[in-house]
Structure formats: structure tokens, C-alpha cells
Specification:
Order of helices and strands of chain A: HHHEEEHEEHEEHHEHEEE
Largest sheet of chain A: 7 strands, antiparallel
Mean pLDDT of chain A: 91
Number of strands of chain A: 11
Structural class of chain A: alpha+beta
Radius of gyration of chain A: 24 Å
Helix content of chain A: 25-40%
Largest interface: A-B, 50 and 50 residues
Number of helices of chain A: 8
Shape of chain A: elongated
Low-confidence stretches of chain A: none
Oligomer: homodimer
Chain lengths: 264, 264
Amino acid sequence: MAVPRWREIAEDLRGRIKDGEFAKADPDQQRAANQLPTESKLQENYGAVSRNTVRQAIDHLVSQRIVYKQAGRGTFVVEALQPFVTNLTVGVKTETVGYREGAEREGRTATTSEPRVEIQAADAWQAATLGINPGESVVVRHQRRFIDGQPFSLQTSFYPMAFVQSGATELLQVNDIPMGAMAYLHEKLGVEEAGTVDRISARSPNSGEAEFFRLPDSGAVAMLVHRRTTYDRDGNPIRVTVTTYPADRNEFEYLTGKVSSRPS
Amino acid sequence: MAVPRWREIAEDLRGRIKDGEFAKADPDQQRAANQLPTESKLQENYGAVSRNTVRQAIDHLVSQRIVYKQAGRGTFVVEALQPFVTNLTVGVKTETVGYREGAEREGRTATTSEPRVEIQAADAWQAATLGINPGESVVVRHQRRFIDGQPFSLQTSFYPMAFVQSGATELLQVNDIPMGAMAYLHEKLGVEEAGTVDRISARSPNSGEAEFFRLPDSGAVAMLVHRRTTYDRDGNPIRVTVTTYPADRNEFEYLTGKVSSRPS
DNA sequence: AACGATTTGTTCGTATGTATC
DNA sequence: TGATACATACGAACAAATCGT
């Protein structure tokens, strides 16, 4: 038993899926378009194997986002989603405005929840990235973003509390800052954005993300994580923004030089 | 049975792991550092539940990269890897040189395999991104990259065959182009890089990637995918490069303005 | 090098619950 | 409401990997 039976079955099914065997409906077999045979049919199909073994094979394909299952309905091939491309190039527009315009350019409607504003004691990571001491106060602004009513991304921004104490009290307002937070800080305090550092990573969704984005809890869909730290002319951090996107329907884009965005 | 037993067990274990219960060795229980109790111990622990139920709970944690299992040894908590940060900012250095210097800055050694060079008929995607017709020839250069001997990334570059026909025959050489391919094309043909478009996405590893990076085939580790298209002054594509990295130990970085890379 | 103990992996069978149509 | 299909759960046996003796 060098290679387990469930793996043989999984590989065979993967091949049959790739060959498009389940792409179209099959009225003879009472199979809807895109649907795999039922577990009991597969049991016969693969020589009176146990149902548990078939299920293990299918679960393997589920974990790789090749198929998904729905209790009472059946097992279906995952259809690739048209990715929404977020342009992260630092440029004329603030990132929030850019996100809205990017959506509208494709004829979609972007909305955001009212921000949830909190004051937190900085943990080690917040302190290190904001250049303050752990335990100092941090303004946390959290927003949920939607496109065409569908959950799109979760964004959390961190500002040192010192800005509020210096008079930038709008940071605590529980609604959008229309001109953008950076423009507001510039106007109010003369704080000027001089550069940014972006970090991009991917990880499994946490439970809050899985719920908001309605992701399967199997961990099959990863989250893309975009962290942007904005610095002033003296190299001091002004803000840290962390935005998470489900990786099955999102891509990031950066432009350099004289180019325009292209399909890919 | 609103919430299944295996999920209760999985959640409980997740909490115990987070609380560090298994962080240190426990000689009384013959448990190595980082190791979870054995399946049979957990069976007793959770009230004479079936071993299969315990296994389902653990498999759930495996799919979320919280633990990993090794046959004959046990189940262990995943330790976060120190991420290697790849700076993708388009700047003075070519990307290949930047990768090498980034590694050396951290006292690590970067190596690459000899390139595998192929001529392929362009598929739909290659044709679209390179601005040629499907079926036309494409030069494909593929390299495996290592850091300290560990597999680090897989890179594949695509060039229109027209460059070779115009005299840039080095593109077909089965070894590195020391000055960098872009500099070579500039010197040989006067082709000049005027801009780039980067796309970043994440997906499950394919079988080749899983083997090369020695990833668990459970799909728990995602791949970060970086696609860079380089354009000349007329907006024509010169090259498309696709590089994949395992997401559990890699991050990307983009710098803008006057900043320097910082820990994060 | 061989063996036995331990631990996870594979596979079977069976019964019952829950979701969908 | 019944039929269908996936989900949960139990029990059991043997295989294969690992490790210490």
C-alpha cells in the first residue's frame, strides 16, 4: 500500500475535473452542472471502497480549493472568481479613495461601514511600528469595506494618541474623515507624509475574517494581508494600516514608470 | 448536536495551545516540548470520545497550520518562522541581484540553479501578457532559488522569441546572464525598460511547488505569487516574470518616498 | 541490526443526524 | 413529507513510521 487508496481516488478525481468531465450537466446521471457524483456513486465507481475513503479523498480536494461540498446538495467544482485588483501604488489618491474609484471604474459600487474607533494600550507590535512605548495609547480605527454589498476587505489603522493630544481630535470621530486622514493631519498639525513601507503576506483567516467573508472554515482560502506604514519627513511613523482580503478573489497591483494597468 | 463534538475539541485545543499549555516539555507525561498529547490520551481527556473524532479535531487544526503531525512521532504546535522579506521596489538593482543582496544583508547565502530554458508555443495567458498571438514562440527561462541551501522561490520568465531573432541569442543560454537580462537587451537591441506592472496574489501550491518547498500536501501553506510585466517606452511588453514563494516564511516589501526598511 | 513499544495513518463497517429539494 | 446527499460519531483492525533498547 505504497500510495493510499484515498490518494489514488483524489488524484483520479483531480484529473477528471481538469479534463472537464463534470463541467456540464448530465441528465442521465441526474447530475447538475459542475457537480461531482455522489459519495455512494463514487463508492461503486472506485470498486466498492468504503464511503469514508471516498470522503477522505474529497476532503483532500476541498482543502486545496478544487471542490466544495454542501450538505444535502452535493459536491461541486470550484469556479475561479474574477479577481478584483486593488492598486496599491502610492500616488495622487489616498488609498481609500483609490479603492472606491477602482470599484467604480468596473461599474461596481463600493461602500464602507462607519468606522469603529477605539483607544488601546499599544501592544509590542503596535509600539514597535509606531515608534512609541508599549502601553502608550493608540487610536485604532477599524472599517469593513464592501463592493456591491459583498464583503471585500477589513481595514484597521493605528495612530499615536499624541496626534489627538496635539489637537487632531477628528481622529476620534466615528465617521469618515472626508479629506482623508493624512490630509487632515497635514492641515491640522502640519504633519507631512514623506514615504511609506508596504508589507504583503498571506496567512490562514482567523475566525472573525472567516465569518465576515463567509469563508469555509477548512482554511482552504488564504487571506492576503497588506500592512502600510506611513512616515513623516523625519522618519517617524504617522500611521500603520493593516488591510486583509480573501485571496480567492483579490489581487494587488503596483505600477512603476510609465505604464497603465492591464488585464492579466 | 448544534456544534459537533470534534469542533468543541478543536476549539478547546486551540485555546490550550494559545495559552501555551504545550509550549514546554512535560516529563511526567513523557511529552516533548511543543508536543500535544497523543490521540489516545486526548480520547480519555475529552470523555471517552472516539479516536476518529479526536483525529478530525486535530486535522482541522492542521488545515489551519496551528499544528502539524508526524507519523510515529506525534502532533506538534507549529512554530512561526521568521519571515524573509523580499523587497520588490523597482529601483537601481535588478530583482535577481536584489534578492541576493537581501539575503547577504542578513548573513545568509543565496544561490540559484542553472536556468532551464525552453521554447514554447504561447498559451492564451502568455500571448495576452506579452502582446503576441497565441501559438507564437516564447522563450521560457526557469530558475530555482535557494537561501542557505533551503528552497526559497521558483521563478519563470517569458520573453517574446522576436528578441532572439533580432540577435539577443544569450536569452537561450543555459546559464545566468551576468549583467541581467534587461541590461543585456538594452545593450544588444536598444530595448529599454520604461515601466513595470506587478500583480500579487495567493493560491494553493501545485504539486511541483509542494515537492520543491517540501510543503505538507494538506494545502495548509499558501503560495505567494508575484507576477511582474516589464514594458518598453512604447508600452510593449518585454518580459513577464512569475515568482512563487511559500507564504509561511516570506513577505514582500515595497518602499515609496524617503524611507528605509524597518522590522515589522 | 533487530525488536518491541509507541504513535499516527489507512480502511473498513455501521448507525444516526441534518440540510436540501 | 419523503428522498437524497453530506455530516457526525462510534468501534475495530491492521499498516507504517519513529525511537529507544
